[in-house]
Amino acid sequence: QVQLVESGGGSALAGGSLRLSCAASGRTFSDGVMGWFRQAPGKEREFVAAITWSGGSTYYADSVKGRFSISRDTAKNTVYLQMNSLKPEDTAHYYCAAGTSVRIVIIRHTIQYNYWGQGTQVTVSS
């Protein structure tokens, strides 16, 4: 059974930093991709960042480019999202997602991903 477990959410002041982790178990995603999405109340789930498992290629939403950084530790089967220069508009529930294969044309879309975690809340206050 595949499980994605997020951790590291919480509260931060604007300009601060948080680091999210996503530990995957139940299978490896060596040919796939790991991503982070977020959803604020009343809004649709939106893409934040993604990283291909084998090559480590990264993709970011324009809204977080230059502030957030996604990375992975293949030995630990874990993906990280380092969030710096946080803004109140970053407040959302953040979800980790895993795809068993990679299609770059849809890497920013939820349909790319087969598995989802329960999410972790990030709240940024001004």
How would you describe this structure to a colleague?
This protein has 126 residues and is an all-beta fold. It is 0% helix and 49% strand. The chain has no helices and 11 strands. Strands 2, 4, 5, 6, 9, 10 and 11 form a 7-stranded mixed sheet that branches. The protein has a 4-stranded antiparallel sheet with strand order 1-3-8-7, with no helix packed on it. Strand 5 (46-52) and strand 6 (58-60) form a beta hairpin. It is globular.
Taken in chain order, the helices and strands follow as EEEEEEEEEEE
Question: By helix and strand content, what is the structural category?
Answer: mainly beta
Low-confidence stretches: none
Describe the biggest sheet? 7 strands, mixed
Chain oligomer state: single chain
Q: Output mean pLDDT.
A: 96
Q: What's the helix count?
A: 0
Q: Could you tell me the radius of gyration in angstroms?
A: 13 Å
Instruction: State the total count of DSSP E strands.
Output: 11
* Helical fraction: under 10%
Shape: globular
The fraction of residues assigned to DSSP E strands is: over 45%
Q: Span from first to last CA?
A: 40 Å
